[in-house]
Amino acid sequence: MKKLLTIFSALICLQLTSNAQISLNQLNSYSLTPNSTDTIGAFARIYYHPSRNKFHMIYAARPAGCALPQGILTNFAWREYSSSMVFTGNKGTLAGFTSAGDFAMVMVDSNYYHLTSLGSTSSGILKYKLSKFSDDFNVVTSATITLNSHD
Fold first, then answer.
1. Domain count, the chain
2. Which of 2, 71, 75, 110 sits 20 to 30 Å CA-CA off 100?
3. What pairing do the DSSP bridges indicate for beta strands 126-134 and 111-120?
């Protein structure tokens, strides 16, 4: 009976995988750049805002003329694009950050949730900042999350 169940399961898996064919076709390609006051736009992410039919690009930025050492990113900036990827003129920075680096962000309902590392303490505790922003990029709330370096 076990052998029959194993064979039956294998046949079902083969059938499911043989019918599941996914292909992606590129529709268009765009090159988006930071605004003229930023010399870098690292870790760029782009999000679609369904109710506005707009895209928001968020990136770690370094303002032009910054006196800090090369490679230091000082804030997170955003730019808005139309559904045809034309800059709308709306732009800004995310409040509450004194430095910027790699990050994760997701839109849930009409809020953006932004997670970034704040580094680690001398005792090896990792610190992260989770911020909730409205869809106009105003801070709603934020929290610091600490994790043991083994987590």
1. 1
2. 110
3. antiparallel
